[in-house]
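Form 12-C: Joint structure prediction
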Amino acid sequence: MMEGKTLATEEKLEHSSLTVEKFAYDNHIVRLFVIASVVFGIVGMSVGLMAAIQLFYPAANLGLPFTSFGRIRPLHTNAVIFAFVGNAMFAGVYYSMQRLLKARMFSDFLSYFNFWGWQAIILAAAITLPLGYTTSHEYAELEWPIDIAIALVWVAFGVNMIGTILKRRERHLYVAIWFYIATFVTVAILHIFNSIQLPISIFKSYYVFAGVQDALVQWWYGHNAVAFFLTTPFLGLMYYYLPKAANRPVFSYKLSIIHFWSLIFIYIWAGPHHLLYTALPDWAQSLGTVFSIMLIAPSWGGMLNGLLTLRGAWDRVREDPILKFMVVAVTAYGMSTFEGPMLSLKNVNWISHYTDWTIAHVHIGGLGWNGFLIFGIFYWLVPKMWGTQLHSVKLANTHFWLGTLGMIFYALPLYVAGFTQSLMWKQFTPDGFLVYSNFLQTVTQILPMYMLRAVGGALYLAGVFVMVYNLMKTAYAGKFIRNEEAEAPALQKNYVGKPNEGWHHRLERRAVMMTVLVFIAVATGGIIEIIPTMLVKSNVPSIASVQPYTPLELEGRDLYIREGCVGCHSQMVRPFRDETERYGEYSKAGEFVYDHPFLWGSKRTGPDLHREGHSKNRRSDSWHYFHMLEPQQMSPGSIMPPYPWLLESSFDAEALKDKISAMRTLGVPYPEGYENQVAEEVKKQGEAIVQRLKEEAKVKTSADKEIVAMIAYLQRLGTDIEVKAEGEETTNTPE
Amino acid sequence: MFKYYFEGIKNVEIFPIISLIIFFTFFLGMIVWLLVMKKSYVDKMKNMPLQSEDEPNESKSFLL
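Section 2 - Result
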């Protein structure tokens, strides 16, 4: 770090020491993050496009386990969230923070540790997810060693940020910095709490919480990852780059303060809206809805604040692609933050949940808010850092239109698809039967919409390529300013503040206090939401007939997790007539007490499977066998991917011992010493299935094959409640 | 696991109420602070992103 001190004659009131210091902003770290973001953006979006194509053309999975839908869906989400958006966030934060604080980053080492560490994590994700190493928690799929690495890198980022704040040359912290602080603190809490797992081997672990509690923790995380990874840092960026690009100050600084504190306080409570009508206790669901509705106010305040910043400059918006991108981004922010609370109303959620509506919703946020804001920022940053002009405004405009069209073609068909399919699920004949009792009919109906969606995605991706060309041309035309010289007076030490300043002034100057306060605000919300569910025994009424999985079923369940079946199948029948008619009795909290992790899912591309083995729906073992081998053979027109490798590979029966004892550690009541019986139990149950397969369809297989474990698991689903005699439901836990 | 520790806490229900009061007070404080906030401070903060040394300060016209 280059910092010399020179005396300057210039004076500033607050800097009575008169010392002007010379230093340099680190642009190199910003450049690295920009490049990484663009590269991984292309990768992540391409994987998304591939997944989208597989939904109407299953053969696009290349026939490989690594590229089948269930495995690349988390690859896509992780890549775009953490690699594309995450790297862009770091780029934007590293650039703006240095300038707003008039200081180089606290430590170059930490900056580069942050960068290379983050890329290593992305690489690890890109390898492990296709291999099927996943925890199954959405947006937290990475296994425990990678979780630890994420925590380390994140802390490095935080230390670097707080360090920079402490050595700043600007007394007051601009609101963008507050958003950054909140991001750091909250993501740290969320990540750590949602990663509490019991490792079994280097790439396998079980979540400590089970069933309802696990679901609550996961969606408290999942929701707030959207809030504090995709929203708050980008609001900070908006409050910096939008004024920059428009060259005018933010419309109302006071509004931005309200925006900040309201979001911090309210967001954290809204998580349960992902679990409406599920087996989650009612009070928690209502809490989620109420806080979601409250969120509209600050979000729209923020959106208006952004848009009104451009008042009187709309003529420039028409010409400047950067401003265009930002306007659409802020508008998309407003749309998603209105739609989100609407989706958390129970009667809307009744229709929207499990459908493509949700997918459309997140892509308005992802493509519109995050994507467009990132593009706007990059078009602004690259010419700045390379000391030149943008190569082609025209191409940037082309990108803008490709992106906008892409978004429209992406979202509109999915709204139609979601709505159509939901209504079809719920349609009854006058005599009270389901009109579309075959789930697949509701799928084939919306396939054209899936095709249009892929067109939308392709357009959006094409736009990104146009940007890459334009930005590279720009960079080649200029000369990169690696270290940007700057100077500013040092801050006076032991500054006591003016006697009449408000408490918030004092607070805002004290970065550490701010951090602590944000922590308290966020932690309180989380604690109040989560702890009662764990405390009150009656929250999870146990059902006496619910038994732990047999070792073979447990293995099947782990295969289900490995293959990402949860990305297409829910295991949560909601208490509606159409669902109980289609699937059977609705799901009860007590049925999930041994589910580490829960597998409720969030999307029904295929039917719910919670009652798959129940006598009402039961298929034969051989049906499952051939269905897994080639779904289209059993269900013509199906878009479910084939899983031929399950028929060939054998599972590791030895590892089951560790799994059983790990489950016991977590509270599943396997008797002591049960591990030693595992081999025998597996063989017994497996042989019975092998025998049935042989009798039913002359299938020749052996009890050690993965398909056998999978069948055992599928046939187990929903059978617990059948054993039970009426009225056996109790409210005390066996523990 | 964790649940047992929390079960041991007496009167755990009081915590939500306390936190509600804290939050409410905090928001009141914020509103009051915003109401009495000095214009000079608001202007200074507003213009902070615009005054970096590397650019010609065209934004002067907005610096009241």
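Section 3 - Comments
Residues 1-19+489-500 of chain A form one domain. The beta strands of chain A are 4-7, 19-26, 197-201, 204-207, 483-489.
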